[in-house]
Task: structure prediction
Amino acid sequence: MRRYGVRLLPLMLVLAVLPARLAAQDTPERVVQRYYEAIKAGDYAATAAMMHPEALDQIKTMFTSMAAAFADQDPDEMEQFLGVRTAADLEKLPAQEVFARMLKSTVGAQEELRQVLATAEVTVLGSVPEGETSHVLYRNKMSMMGMEMNQVQVASVKRHEGQWKVLLTADLSGMMGALGGLTGGGDEP
Amino acid sequence: MRTLIRTAALAAALLSLAPAAAAAQTQTPEQAARAYFQHLRAGDISAIAQAMHPAALQSLKDSLMPLVAEISARHGGGEGPMGMDAGAMGALAPDALYQLMLMGLFSEIDLQAAQGALDIRPLGTLPAGPDLAHVVYAVTLPVAGHGVEMKQVLTMRRHEGAWKVDSGTGISALVNSGLLPLLFSAAVAEELGGDDDEDEDDDGGR
Result:
């Protein structure tokens, strides 16, 4: 019996490590395809889990800055949007949770938008590498307000702890700097 | 009658502005994209239209004309968008109509500041067959004195040996042709600059 245990040990180890290895072998294309499948399915926790920590931090910083500027004026709206009433409460939330809540209260709360996304056809075309980042191109076909949209778009992914994670399409830190005049914060140009 | 004369004058002006030089046949998709971005930066409407794939411009025209007719009908069949009636606009060639639209767009929104300061950096190309390629590029926009970087795609399709910008079908062609970052930049600048005015309007309207 002990011999069987010894023989089975390597197999058990392989099985234990397998999911991690499979994830590490994920291609940028597969990750982006799964990312949009999660959005289409309304699984915002899974969507947030696929985001790169850099991107999540940018989102959290943006909302924390906005909350610091506006939460006192309308805590009810803040609670409706992110489930917290103050900037301090928002600061305590993990960045991944902030992003998931943001998706839920924006995309998830709008039936029309959810329907548009649910019927969207996302076809990954390939990727263009740039250093440790990979830019994945995909064709997005959707129908919105009676108009057919057919666009090639790009989503960038970057490795984090062996896995490809999705980046933001636009640099929010620059945008926050630009919006500094509105929030009363932001850095100098 | 006055509209017709204006249309004819505009068409003649647009045709005379069209560059005689054909696009280089040996360009790669990325080089053609770079040239296109230079036209965009310079605000060279004629060169921008020349760089577009004819099928994309035709599709844009086909999608726009019903809207133009509707707007024109709302005005009792008189002037439609940009002071022209639907018939006059329909008579324009797709590239002339596109130039007219760009002229209207560029005059409506203050794009000049954004155009000159645009920093566009092609990152690579994804070929999709012998006549189709997607160029990924990073564009840094000047927004209220800050640089905001966005990643975008410009699809290039070969036409008569030269790579042309294929902005796709329908009205989405307008935003697929590299104009989206410019419009975004101008819209944010307008939002930041026009905040006081907007408040006044809001107060006045209530």
Notes: The CA atoms of residues 80 and 156 of chain A lie 30 Å apart. Chain A touches chain B at residues 125-130, 135, 137, 147-154, 156, 169-171, 174-175, 177-182, 186, 189 (CB under 8 Å). Chain A has a mean pLDDT of 80.
